[in-house]
Structures are given as C-alpha cells and as structure tokens.
C-alpha cells in the first residue's frame, strides 16, 4: 500500500477525532441524543467512510497495476498467445470436468484476453449449463461445435432421478443448443437422461462428423428426413449399451469408423450387412459383445466389398457370428484382424475362415503372414494365434472356452488350426506352452504338418516330448525346410536333442537342406561331449546367448 494512501486514511481518521473532541468541549453542543447531534455524527462518519473507500479503491487499483507489471517479468507471461492456446488445449484433454476455456478466462486479465480471442477454446461444449453453453456459442465464432455430455459413472444411491433443478438446467441447455445444430461437428451423449436429451436427435446437423451414444436408448424420430439423414459428413459412429435404432434408416456413404459395444438387442445379419454395404469407405469395424439373431443369416448373400477396410476387431463374440462376418467381407491385403471368440459345445476353428483358394479374394492379408505365434496364454491357458508380416500384426485370435472343458478344448482348437488354416508364406513359427496332453494326441504334429515353409522354429516351454516329434524318419517329415531351432525353458532332453540333430543332418544331406543353428536356454547345462557333437553337426550352437566354440 502506498504511503500517500495510508496518510490519507490517517488524516481522515484524525480529523474525525478532532471534530468529535471539539464538539464535546463546546458548551453549546446539544444533548448527546438530540437529532442535531446525531445528524452531525452521521454526516461525519459518512464522509470518513466515503474517503476511506475511495482511498482503498485507489489502493486496489494500484496493487493490481503493480502485480501486472511484476508479472511481465515472469517468463511464463512472455509466452506467445499460440503457446497459451496449446497449453489450454492440453489442459482440456487432461481435465475430465470440462469447461477449460470458461475457467481459464477467470484466472487473470491476460488469460481472459487470450481465452476470449481464441475461438477454439470455446468450441467444446461439455458442461450442462445454459450460461456456459451460450458463452461457448457466442465466443466460438463460426467454428464447428463439439457437444459432449457425460453423466457421472456412479451416481449416489439416493439420486436415481435427477432433481427438478437439474432437469430445468438440462432443458435450458438443450434449448440453447438446438438453434445451432447446423454447427455441430460431433455429438456425444453418455449416460444422460433420454427424455431430456432426445430432442438433440431430432435436429438437422449438416456438419456432424462424429456420433457417440452410450447408455442412451431414447426413441429416435420416425421422420427419415431428421438428424442422421441430414448429416452427409458423418464418418464416425459409436453405440454402446444402446440399440441399433439410430442406424435403421440412413445411408452412410462417408462412414469410416463403426464401433458397436454391448448392443441391447439381437442384430439381424441381413440388416447389418445392408449397413456395411451402405458404407463403402469403412476403415474400422469394432464389435464388442454383439449378438446376431441366428435365424437372420441369409442362405445366399452377395459378398460385401470394403476396399478401404484396414482393421476389424471382434470381442466376446460367438464363433458363428465371427465366421459369418469374416466370410462376408472382401477386404484389401492390408487388413488386420483381432478377435476374442467365445466357444460353446464342441466348436473349433474349422469353419472360421474360407478355404485357402478363396482367401486371396476375401482376406488376402492372411496370405501375407510371415511369422506365427501360437500357444496358451494367461493363468487359464487360453489358446491364441498371432500372425505378423514384419512387425505388423495381421491376425490376433484369442479362443475363450466359455462353456467347454479346458484340456480337450485346447487340443481341438490347435488340431483344427493345423488342419484348416494355411499360411503359405510363414517362415517363422513360435509354439508356446503346449502341454503333455496335446503332445500325446499329436496336436504338435498336426500344427507343423500344414506349415512346410517354416525355416525358423522356436519351442517355448513345451516339454521334452516336442523334441522327439521333430526327429526325421521314413514316416515323419515335419518342417522339411527347418534351418534354425530355438528352445526356451529348462526342460531339454539331451538324448532326444542328439537324435533330432543326427536325423536331420543325415536327411539334410539327402534332401539338400539341413539344420544350421541351434539355440538352447541358459538354464540348461549341456554336457561338453553333447555340445561338441552338436557343434560338429549343426555348425552354430548358442547356449544362453553365448556361442559354443
């Protein structure tokens, strides 16, 4: 506080005291409680109050000015406005409560100037508050508006129904948005009241590019000319814990991404296929816990050509649903497939894909697979199959035994894989955690028997029985092109390993191919005699990362 301001307040207070004393010593002063005396005191006090208020106001103004001047020396305050804009945007993405532009505009004069001059900060409407919405609409210029209302995931037990005040606020918010539907770029309604927010789905939104409805099952307008029909730029749809009613009557010529999660009713295959046919630019198809009506599968259907499709993901879906979709689509050779499939009864992989001679037209990306990894994962030992072309994962299947026996199920899965799937380009194969039961049932041989192109084989914790399955004799010619064998784990049968290498060396001279490299785990100490013999036969033997001399 400035010294002059302090002195002003002191002078004002002193003058009041002097005046009071003068009146007290004046013999002509009326009685203390007389109207004249009271009026005089009121007048003096009012004057003091006004002068002090004026002095304090000047002090606050001066303090604000000094703080502003001091802030100019802080490095952060010398950043360009563009830097602040990007910082504010990062704050928006990191803050789930929304309204960043609204809040930063109340921090300081400088921040407010930046916020008010940056329309992008006001283009996201994510708070159910009519005052906030009106401010965003006014301050965002002509930018597209991203409308995103997301109710809390866990509401208090006593708030099953929203209060009348909340309902009124929601109604006013919707009313504020409807006249500006032509500016909507995206609309996201998650866990909000269907009665209060349904009017948003009756609006005409020609700029709309993204739609997300989750836990929102409002009845949509029967008028075909409403909402999605007037959104020609729509390219992203995500429905979760909802119905397919929103997709019932529209042609999605520009749709590139479709995500359906836990749809609450059965989906008819024919309707779903029609939806895909109306989406020729589709790039991503993501289905999670989707149930197709069994009787809706057409006996004969025209293949669905999706030349831009690059990723299909299906999670917790039944085998025949996955099989129907994979057999229906015709995709480019860059397609990646990821699926978690639920198996019931005696199902296996035998009908999952089309025959090899049809794969080139339907799913040619599978013919590009150069590296395979198959085996068991997790504590429950669920079978998995992964296929790669270079570092790109083209196939990722996980088989979930929903209502079937574990050991028998695993054997059936890999046997059907070996007998049905065909990957002509596979050179690298990794087999992980094949148990004794699968070895006894020759599942290992079934898998390798259909992969003659394998050059590099890794056996990961499969037990010593797998070694003997690779021994070459008059009836066994598994992996005829094998050049490199890697064993992971500490259970190595030295005698079986000698027999394996010896058989392949003799056979290799006859057939013009031989085992050139053997990699063994560090945990297994190889007898020097065995190591020397293996070194002579194979050429390169590596134990625990160190090459045997």
Plain-language structure description:
The strands form two sheets. The chain has an 18-stranded mixed beta sheet. Strands 8-10 form a two-stranded parallel sheet. Mean pLDDT is 81; it is low at 156-160. Helix 6 (130-139) links the parallel strand 1 (124-125) and strand 2. The protein has helices at 3-25, 35-71, 81-94, 100-104, 109-116, 130-139, 164-177, 194-197, 269-277, 319-328, 356-362, 406-420, 436-440, 443-449, 465-469, 494-511, 528-538, and strands at 124-125, 145-150, 184-190, 210-214, 236-240, 257-261, 284-288, 304-305, 311-318, 329-330, 336-343, 371-377, 382-389, 392-401, 428-432, 456-460, 484-488, 517-520, 540-543, 546-547. With 549 residues, the chain is an alpha/beta fold. The chain is elongated. It contains 17 helices and 20 strands. Helix content is 37%, strand content 19%. Helix 16 (494-511) packs parallel to helix 17 (528-538). Among the domains are: 3-75; 455-549, no CATH class. InterPro entries: F-box-like_dom_sf, LRR_dom_sf.
């Amino acid at each position: 506080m400035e010294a002059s301001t302090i002195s002003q307040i002191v002078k004002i207070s002193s003058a009041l005291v002097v005046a009071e004393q003068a009146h007290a010593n004046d013999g002509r002063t009326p009685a203390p409680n007389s109207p004249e005396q009271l009026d005089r005191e009121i007048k003096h006090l009012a004057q003091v109050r006004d002068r002090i208020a004026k002095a304090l106001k000047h002090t606050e103004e001066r303090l604000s000015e000094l703080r502003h001047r001091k802030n100019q020396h802080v490095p952060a305050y010398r950043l360009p406005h563009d830097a602040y804009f990007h910082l504010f945007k990062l704050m928006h993405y990191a803050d789930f409560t929304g309204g960043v532009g609204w809040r930063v505009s109340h921090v300081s004069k400088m921040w407010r100037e930046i916020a008010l001059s940056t329309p992008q900060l006001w283009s996201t409407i994510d708070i159910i508050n009519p005052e906030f919405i009106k401010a965003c609409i006014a301050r965002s210029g002509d930018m597209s508006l991203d409308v995103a209302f997301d109710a809390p995931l866990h509401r208090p037990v006593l708030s099953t129904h929203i209060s009348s005040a909340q309902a009124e606020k929601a109604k006013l918010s919707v009313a504020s948005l409807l006249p500006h539907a032509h500016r909507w770029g995206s609309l996201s309604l998650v866990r909000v009241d269907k009665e209060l927010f349904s009017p948003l789905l009756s609006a005409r939104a020609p700029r709309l590019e993204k739609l997300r409805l989750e836990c929102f099952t409002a009845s949509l307008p029967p008028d075909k000319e409403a909402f999605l029909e007037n959104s020609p730029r729509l390219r992203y749809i995500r429905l979760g814990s909802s119905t397919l009613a929103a997709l019932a009557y529209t042609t999605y010529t520009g749709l590139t991404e479709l995500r359906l999660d836990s749809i609450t009713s059965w989906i008819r295959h024919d309707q779903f296929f029609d939806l895909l046919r109306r989406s020729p630019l589709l790039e991503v198809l993501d289905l999670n816990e989707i149930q197709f009506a069994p009787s809706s599968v057409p006996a004969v259907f025209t293949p669905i050509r999706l030349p831009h499709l690059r990723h299909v993901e299906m999670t917790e879906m039944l085998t025949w649903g996955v099989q129907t979709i994979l057999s229906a689509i015709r995709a480019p050779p860059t397609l990646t497939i990821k699926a978690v499939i639920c198996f019931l009864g005696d199902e296996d992989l035998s009908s999952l894909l089309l025959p090899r001679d049809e794969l080139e037209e339907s799913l040619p990306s599978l013919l590009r697979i150069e590296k395979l990894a198959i085996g068991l994962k997790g504590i429950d030992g669920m079978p998995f199959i992964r296929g790669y072309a270079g570092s790109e994962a083209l196939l990722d299947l996980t088989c979930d035994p929903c209502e079937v026996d574990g050991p028998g199920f695993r054997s059936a899965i890999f046997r059907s894989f070996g007998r049905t799937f065909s990957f002509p380009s596979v050179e690298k194969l990794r087999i992980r955690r094949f148990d004794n039961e699968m070895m006894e049932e020759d599942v290992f041989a079934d898998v390798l028997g259909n992969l003659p192109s394998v050059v590099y084989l890794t056996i990961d914790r499969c037990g010593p029985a797998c070694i003997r399955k690779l021994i070459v004799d008059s009836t066994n010619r598994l992996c005829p092109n094998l050049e490199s064998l890697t064993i992971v784990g500490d259970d190595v049968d030295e005698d079986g390993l000698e027999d394996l290498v010896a058989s392949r060396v003799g056979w290799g001279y006859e057939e013009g191919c031989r085992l050139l490299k053997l990699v063994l785990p560090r945990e297994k100490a190889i007898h020097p005699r065995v190591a020397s013999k293996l070194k002579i036969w194979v050429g390169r033997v590596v134990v625990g990362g160190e090459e045997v001399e």
